[in-house]
Amino acid sequence: xxxxxxxxxxxRFRVYxxxxxxxxxxxxxxxxxxxxxxxCGDRLLFAVWLEDxxxxxxxxAGFEAAGCGALTAAASAAVQLVEGRPFLEAAQTTAAxxxxxxxxxxxxxxxxxxxxxxxIHRALGAALTQVTLPREERRVVVGLSGGVDSAVAAVLLKExxxxxxxxxxxxxxxxxxxxxxxxxxxQAVRSARRLARQLxxxxxxxDLRDRFRHAVVERWVEEHRTGLTPYPCLRCNGxxxxxxxxxxxxxxxxPWIATGHYARLVKKDGKELVARGMDPRKDQSYPxxxxxxxVRSRLLLPLGGLKKGEVRGVAxxxxxxxxxxxxxxxxxFLAGTTRERLLARLGGIEAKEGPIQDRQGKVLGRHRGFAGxxxxxxxxxxxxxxGPLFVLAVDPxxxxxxxxxxEELLVRELPLVExxxxxxxxxxxxxxxxxxxxxxxxxxxxxxxxxxxxFPQPVERTAPGQLACLYSGEVVAGWGIIAGERP
Length: 487
What we know:
By secondary structure, the protein is α+β, with helices and mostly antiparallel strands.
């Protein structure tokens, strides 16, 4: 168990193992970070609380560990390193630093320092509600996802003289997920932490799983139950991630927050508004449509004027491990599973076979469960005919899927609900009704019972529940939810 790298190093390890500093010190007022688990057999609970020393909030720490002795020694060394340090200095503690403090562990025990690092950063993230740092004009809280875009955003901000603090949210953890393809998994959190080490910036891990499940996933399930096809990124960005970033920035004395989205911010009519990114293939103004003014006014989007290739070039130049990593899925909680499987597990929406029928009610085939279909879908229907058929509507009450030819999918108007406008309705001249669709010429008109999005040319109707992002030129002028045609 004792590393074989010299008597002095072995002695340091022995001291931390036999007289572990902070072991069993877990005051009820502390914030806690857990690491490890059943897979490796080692479990760590790291505790952090704050103490005011001459007007500076410094860190106190303790822990409890179960498993191998190396974990106890690593956690003890971690307590030694963070005790008495200012909060953001403690947030820069790395596994390499813990390993050096121990004198160097053998490769077989190297996971112990990784677990200690994880416990520290999770505990510091949980302690954020206790933090009140003085305002620092160049401090910026960066949403660090573990991917190339947010990493380069932090790099560019640092080069511009800002002082980034990386924050990674763990939003979802599910045994069926593929952690490589999800931007909010525990593995993504570890990747973001490695990037923060490389960028030499403080890093905090914040667990938002309960909030995300309630505000996004449970809502997604219930809307599917009624036959809608929701766009969960709208709720996640509008109600979870950015509001959490802003609250953390307040605690850390940071005037600014930032992400790696491909969008810009512009002034129009005295307001700070989201605008389309310069790379039309990567423009992400659509998922940012619901950001409130309080967020937009302090948001920095350093990738808005860049193309994806340029961003990967910056990452490659700096030797970042994520330079060639594929982009994650939009629906992070579906990575590695299917919509039908998750709806069945979380909402009890079992795949129950039912009729596929035309507008007149003629049965053309059988579907495998209405939740597996969405308006505009062509593939996977399993029915023949004189020409291609598309899903026109989903009727959960009758457990039916209504199909027809493409011309029946075309409309010149779409009703909207939950309308939010940042500019007057007369300023709207375009709309995007699909996350990867083009911005289409459109106008917003008032009507009895609600607003109507009208198009000069027929467009393919999208699913009820989807987002309509409204534009004035390149600027996001507002948004609404498509009510669409219901059976």
